[in-house]
Amino acid sequence: HCTLPVKEAAEERRQDFGEKLARLRELMGELQRRKVALEGVSKDLQARYKAVLQEYGHEERRVQEELARSRKFFTGSLAEVEKANSQVVEEQSYLLNIAEVQAVSRCDYFLAKIKQADVALLEETADEEEPELTASLPRELTLQDVELLKVGHVGPLQIGQAVKKPRTVNMEDSWAMEAAASAASTSVTFREMDMSPEEVVASPRASPAKQRGSETAANIQQCLFLKKMGAKGSTPGMFNLPVSLYVTSQGEVLVADRGNYRIQVFTRKGFLKEIRRSPSGIDSFVLSFLGADLPNLTPLSVAMNCHGLIGVTDSYDNSLKVYTLDGHCVACHRSQLSKPWGITALPSGQFVVTDVEGGKLWCFTVDRGAGVVKYSCLCSAVRPKFVTCDAEGTVYFTQGLGLNLENRQNEHHLEGGFSIGSVGPDGQLGRQISHFFSENEDFRCIAGMCVDARGDLIVADSSRKEILHFPKGGGYSVLIREGLTCPVGIALTPKGQLLVLDCWDHCIKIYSYHLRRYSTP
């Protein structure tokens, strides 16, 4: 046995541990590079998914164009057959009319002969030969019958199929790592093991699932369904074709229950009260004496300002009505309004009302004792309908007219907007979202909007049956894809829940909503 000093032995042991530590650090660096490469592969796969989906969309549009051309050719061929048959029928009708005229003429001739005197009648020597009136009429008609001959595919039409092919990626190849590293959005370097737990949590590579979540955000439903409130009926807490929803800063929920001619107010504990149109005593007496129906409140939209006043657009007389929470009407304004529809409350307490037929947005200042004390035109727009505003006073409104082709109730109020515009408190136009808000996506029937605490716009499309999310910085995502039949109103509660008013389900559907969202560019 050789004898070494304690210091040299310890130094040799430290050197041994140092070499092992260096090898472990190299291994961790290698693992980190593999993680970067794996994330690059994941992003490459997401890009391939998107490319295949876009290719499918192009092929689908090509098939639709082919179908349109086929329909045009088919209708043209059918029109030619119809034209040929119409000519034969018209010719036969012409011959029948001539024969009928000849028959009537012969009838008149024989009537005149019958009325002649005996001597004159007998003076005629020989009987005239009776003409054959139906000799020129064909016994048979040669027409072209038409029937549909189905050609092409058998079974349901398919644009294409997703074919799976094995693909092997060698994680040790330098080119794969370089490609993955170039695809990574941020550079990553190995850090010492003594970094704090806060740094570990804040590291952008600590949770790769979050990075991949942004790529698939548009393909999943981001809001979870919690519960449903209400059903079809006329009792308190029930709805019949509700059309508008508003949530106050205190958490009170206002619903324009159009089918029941009322506004319902709910608190966190449940139903609070309802507001109906109540005419004055003399009006009620005169109408009842004459046997006429009392006027109803037919709400189109509802909102409450910071002073506790409830604004309602009433389609019964095309007016703006303002009520207190007790149901007392403090203002009824019709001047300058052709067809008032949407209404929202600004942070200042003023109401903004859209006039669909007048093409303007009006701003109203209402006093609890004096009624409407001031009103002015905020801006002009093309058929503005639904409206909302953010905490800074920026007003978002829908423009145009997008028809809901699946309108089962044949109700005009289910016609929505075609695009979205915005205007600031100073009347300057701001952010615009066009009809085609993405390459392959478009609005079909905007029926409701709201703005969250970050200024992101949330849109209800009743024809798409979806809730869309438009971040303030751009892009979009789909919050709710399934479970809705006709969303016509949306609002956010102070606790961060998303309320969706479903008109044809006659209820309010409650979903979870979080401020942190991912959206597609």
TrEMBL record:
GO cellular component: cytoplasm
Membrane-spanning segments: none
Keywords noted in UniProt: Coiled coil, Repeat
Parts forming coiled coils: 7-41
NHL repeats: 226-269, 283-326, 332-367, 430-473, 484-514
PANTHER family: E3 UBIQUITIN-PROTEIN LIGASE TRIM32 (PTHR25464:SF3), TRIPARTITE MOTIF-CONTAINING PROTEIN 2-LIKE PROTEIN (PTHR25464)
Protein known as: Tripartite motif-containing 32
Source organism of this protein record: Mustela putorius furo (European domestic ferret)
